[in-house]
Amino acid sequence: MKIIYFISLFILISIYNSSVNAQRCANCLKENQSCSKDLNFGSCESGTFCPHKSQVCTSYIKEGEKCDKDFNYCIPGKRCLEDVDGIYRCIDHSFSNFGEECTLDSDCSTYQLSCIKGVCKLITNQTCNSDDGNCQYNEYCKCPSTGCYCTPIKTEGESCSSTDKCLPGLFCISSICTKFATPMLGIGSPCTFSVECNFNDGLYCSNRICQEFVEPKSTSCTPNTTSTNQCSEYQSCSCSDGTCYQTSPYPPEEIQLVINNNLKQCAYDNGCALGNYLNYISSESCVSKNCRKLICEKESQDYVKQKGDDCGRDAFELDLYCNSSIKITQSIASILIILLITFSLIF
Known about the structure:
The chain is of the alpha+beta class. Helices cover about 20% and strands about 15% of the residues. It comes from Dictyostelium firmibasis.
């Protein structure tokens, strides 16, 4: 679990450094045009990608269609795997956690699980291995020096190491699972975390005081420049119209914590484990079936008015899941990982 946090931190820092002020505009390539993994050469447009084999912008293979097992050209979220008939097709994968229904071993979310009699179960001599996807929805994987095992999620007043170890609605503060008192704090009130302030009134905790956030006005800018003072903090210069737009919700701490906790509550109420598995957003996953609206609402918090900055790839991936044309700065997978890391960084 710690590994994914460090990877996420790297992604978060990379995205932040590349988008806060200056914006590099992509050279969008059409299908069948020559491409390269070198981003300086160009980037394939929405719905296509640049395979190592041909280095020509190629359309993804759609779900259910036959594929070559040696080349995973499947549409995002799918993988070239054997189906129940032994034919390699682009299919869903890694969507079932411990105790959830499955048909193929590839349906199970981690390598420690196998599909046994229609249910994902731990393989003999395997443990939860720091992955909560290997535990029940009301448990988490604890790994002391003696080995890993599943243990119940912490309740209010119990000791904790991070918020994701506490029941929904609780936050790990001073190593104790704590529920914030209501009503939430008003403007001018002393605070420690943004979740203490009344976010419904647009308040967040800044300099230990609940304050109202006012989004900076959009100003003109010049894309593809090394200038670092064109746009305000958390803004980026749009490639489409040379205007500074907000590129991420601010304050991200407050918005992400609240929305992520709502998703956590929905998953818990529906008996869905929130493991760090490969295909979290699969339409077949428990959390996706029961909490898709919340997941898509979480994506919309990273709404960006920019156009053409990523050749439409992020909007394409979001549309696959939420049937939306919203353009975002990160892919769905990146956002979900970033939201997971928020808890570990803050608490």
